[in-house]
Amino acid sequence: MAKDMTLLWGTGSVPCWRVMIMLEEKRLQGYDKKLLSFEKMEYKSQEVLDINPRGQLPSFKHGNIVVNESYGICFYLESQFKNQGTKLIPDDTDQQALMYQRMFEGPTFYDKVGAVVYYEYYVPEGERHDSAVKRNREALVTELNLWEGYLQKSSFTFYCLSYVAVQMCYFLIHRLSAQRYPKLGEYHARVKERPSVKASWPPYFVEGQEDWDTLKDI
Amino acid sequence: MAKDMTLLWGTGSVPCWRVMIMLEEKRLQGYDKKLLSFEKMEYKSQEVLDINPRGQLPSFKHGNIVVNESYGICFYLESQFKNQGTKLIPDDTDQQALMYQRMFEGPTFYDKVGAVVYYEYYVPEGERHDSAVKRNREALVTELNLWEGYLQKSSFTFYCLSYVAVQMCYFLIHRLSAQRYPKLGEYHARVKERPSVKASWPPYFVEGQEDWDTLKDI
Predict the structure, then answer these.
(1) Which of B65, B72, B93 sits opposite A93 (nearest CB)?
(2) Total number of domains in chain A
(3) What's the complex ipTM?
(4) How far apart are CA A8 and CA A61, in angstroms?
C-alpha cells in the first residue's frame, strides 16, 4: 500500500516527525524514506526542489500527488486512508471541535518554543538583544502554563497527539522541567511509549540530547 | 440555524475575516456578531477571556462548543454543515491534496507579510535594525513570487480561497503592486467580487486604506 509513497525527511525536525508518526498510525509502513542532512543543506538539493519549491523537509509524494506541509500531509492521509489504522478525526462533535482548536493552537506553541530554542540560529549576531530573549522566555512560560492548564481540564486523545504531542516530546528532550510542568511531563511519558512514536523516534534526539538544556530553567 | 452562533471579531484582522467569509459561504448568516475594538484592547475583556484564554479574536461559540482558531473554525463548520452552502473540501483527490498544500502554506505567506507590515508594531524601538527590515522585505518578495508562480500554473478554486485568498485582499489593500504581481492582482480582482467577500468586507479596510502603503515598493 505504501510502496508508492516517498518521504524526504530530516532528523530533528518536528514537522517531519509528525508525518512519520502519522504514517505509522495509519499503518503505512514500508514507504520509501530518505534521510537528508540539514547540515549539508540537502533540503536545497534538486531532489527536494523538484517536488518542493520551498526547499524544505518534509517533502512527500504519493504516486503523482505532492503534499509537503506536515499538517496538510496529515489531513491528506486521514482522508485517503480513513478506515485504516488509527482514526485521526473524531466523529463526536465536542471531541472534534476540541481537536481542531488544539491542533491549530499547535503552531503558536511551536513558535514560542522556537523563539527561545532557535534564537541564535535565526537572529544574526548584530541584531540580538537581551530584552528580546527575556520577552521570548516569558512568552514561552505563559504558553506552557496555558497547555498545562488544558491538560488539567482534560487529557488529550490521540487525535490531538499526532499534531501536538510530537512537540511535547521535543520540549522534554530539550530538558523542560517535568516538575514545573507536571501535566506536560505526564503526557510526554505517555506519548513516548506509543508504538508509532517509538518506531519513528529520530536518531538525532537520542544521540544529541546530553547537550541540550535551553529549556532547563524555563 | 445560525442563531446559536456567536462571533467576537475585530475589524482589520485577517483570521476574523476568514471566518466571516466562511460563515457566508456556508449560508450561516444571522449569527450573533459582535465587533470589539483592538484599540481599546477589548480582546482582553472578560467576555473574550471567558471563551478564549488567549484573549484573541476571533472567538467563536456554537451552542456550547467553542473554537477560536480561524482554521479550526473553518474545518469545524465544514464538518458540521457539509451539505450546506459552498463545499470547502473537494472530493477529487488531486484537488484536495492541492488545497491542503496551499492552505497550510497560507500561514507562512501571512507571516512573511506580517514581518514587513507589522515590524514596528511587534519589534520594540530599541531592537529595530535596518538589516532585519531589508531581510524581511526580501523574504516577502521571494514568497510573493512563489505564489505568483503557483497562480501561473493553476488558478485556485474557491476551496483555497476562504483560507488563503482573504490574505490576498489584505495584501492588495496594502498597495501591493498588481503590475509587479499580475497573477495575484487578477486573483484579488476576482476574489473581491465574490458575494461572501463583499458581504463580510471589514469597514476598517475601506476607511483607512488611503494611508497604507507599506507594500507599495515590494
Answers:
(1) B65
(2) 2
(3) 0.93
(4) 9
